[in-house]
């Protein structure tokens, strides 16, 4: 058991290391605080790993992942990470206050970390969709010799789904030499934990007048709802998507506010993260399109479009190659997308009423989302009203990601042939989950703007 945990720890640390290497070279002249650097390094590490796993799976080369190669690559990453730290001229800013916040979060979530290591995998989608695919990629060297994808006996697994999550799980299986559903859950818990740290770091960075206890109270009150705890490590991929969306929103804010107009420094990781999101969940594809529009739009606004768009497009090729290989394989294996289009003549108006009703129900009944969703919605309305009244329209920019994703989900509900009375209740909790960390970032960002308006007595 100790050996499995050690490997899981190395696997998690590896993602931090390669993310740190990437940021150290990209942001060599930028100082970042450790509470922001850690979660961004995590999500970027995964964003770099997932397309590579797709490529290995396409060429049936997953067998090269084993304890020996894993150890060699980890040691190399450790050495390069140390070198990268010296290359970064300004480095990562660390203070006692930041370390206290980070330590408090680790101590607070120790019971949840322990639970993720020993809890059983009981969620249907986790067992029947994600982890069964991971086992298929553990047994097979890739896509082409994969029984699950070549046979017609596994249609219930929704084989058209992206395989980023299963490939990460299969990598861990290969590193320890067998399938272990318990300890691998701690890996996915880190998408949740890093979302918490990202929110903590952003709040700490934006509203400096808050005490440490106030910061902890605000963040934990938002992130320890039943919805977060349930999906934090139950084998679903939704928390990974939520972490990706929140990270992109933070980077978009940095890109817009950068006075030196070094937009490519933020646009590159934005597109890399959003691109890997399209390799994790189907919902990641419209999010990638939205990120490209917003990111390139900011670059055009700052008149630094040529270099930023060119360099980010080159980086975007990396996850797009993985996506195209997967689409080619699905076409060759005759794997069709499970969401067939709506039949002609269907009553769209009736569907709209059901969808809007579900949205409104979320703001009336706490259920698993808890009262946090309701309070956040009304706080967002207040902040938006204040910003519009003072014509601070630029502060509304991060809302584009949330509104855009809601629009994409609404469109999906309108065209799907699945019964809405079944699909809406079963999927809406996860829709909310994917947007909540990003919503927290938006509330903090807009809250900071409104606080400045109040402090300058500009509201009236």
Secondary-structure map:
Blueprint: H1 2-26, E1 32-33, H2 34-58, H3 67-87, E2 92-93, H4 96-108, H5 110-118, H6 124-139, H7 147-150, H8 164-176, H9 185-206, H10 212-223, H11 226-231, H12 238-257, H13 264-277, H14 284-301, H15 305-332, H16 348-362, H17 370-389, H18 399-415, H19 420-455
Parallel strand pairs: 1-2
Helix pairs in contact: 1-2, 1-3, 2-8, 2-9, 2-13, 2-15, 4-9, 6-8, 9-10, 9-12, 9-19, 12-13, 12-14, 12-19, 13-14, 13-15, 14-15, 14-18, 16-19, 17-19, 18-19
What is the approximate shape? globular
> Would you identify the regions where 5 or more consecutive residues have pLDDT less than 50?
none
Q: Roughly how many Å is the radius of gyration?
A: 22 Å
Main sheet attributes: strand count, strand direction, barrel closure? 2 strands, parallel
- Helix content percent band: over 70%
N-end to C-end Cα span: 63 Å
Estimate the mean pLDDT confidence. Answer: 87
Number of helices: 19
Task: Enumerate the strands of the largest sheet in spatial order, edge to edge or round the barrel.
Answer: 1-2
Q: Report strand %.
A: under 5%
> Which structural class fits the helix and strand makeup?
mainly alpha
Number of DSSP E strands: 2
Keywords: Membrane, Transmembrane, Transmembrane helix
Transmembrane segments: 6-27, 39-59, 65-87, 99-121, 185-203, 210-229, 235-254, 266-299, 305-325, 371-389, 396-419, 431-447
Organism: Candidatus Roizmanbacteria bacterium CG10_big_fil_rev_8_21_14_0_10_39_6
Protein name: Glycosyltransferase RgtA/B/C/D-like domain-containing protein
